[in-house]
Amino acid sequence: MFEAESPIPCQIIAFPLTKRVAKIRDVAAKLMEKATDRQAEAYRNQIADTLFRHLERIGVHEDEQDEQVGAFFTAVELELSRLYDLTEDYGDTSAY
Q1: Alpha-carbon distances, residue 15 vs 19, 41, 68, 72 (angstroms)
Q2: Reported pTM
Q3: Which residues are CB-neighbours of 25 under 8 A, at least 6 positions away?
Q4: Each residue's pLDDT tens digit in the chain (96 positions)?
Q5: How would you write the chain as a 3-class SS string?
Q6: Angle CA 17–26–11, to nearest 5
Q7: How far apart are CA 24 and CA 8, in angstroms?
C-alpha cells in the first residue's frame, strides 16, 4: 500500500542575478563611491560572498553559482560604464 518511492530529481532554477536590476544599480553606485581600488575590491568580495551563500542555501549547483555571480558582476561593470559615461556627459550622477 505504501511503497517507497525513489526521490524525483529536481533542478533549482533561481531568479537570474542578472535580472536583479535594482541590486546591480545599487552595487554599481556604491562602487563608484569607493575612494580606493582596495575599498572597491573589498566591497566586491563582500557582495560576491553574499551572493554565493544565497545561491548555496537555495541549492544551486556550484558551477551554476559561478556562472550566475560572474554574469552579475559583468552586469555591474556595464552599469558602471553607463554611470561613468553620464558623469562625463553631465558632470554629476547625483540625480541618478
Answers
A1: 7, 25, 10, 12
A2: 0.78
A3: 79
A4: 566 677 777 776 778 999 999 999 999 999 999 999 999 999 999 999 999 999 999 999 999 999 999 999 999 999 999 998 887 766 654 544
A5: CCCCCCCCCCCCCCCCHHHCHHHHHHHHHHHHHCCCHHHHHHHHHHHHHHHHHHHHHCCCCHHHHHHHHHHHHHHHHHHHHHHHHHHHHHCCCCCC
A6: 10
A7: 35
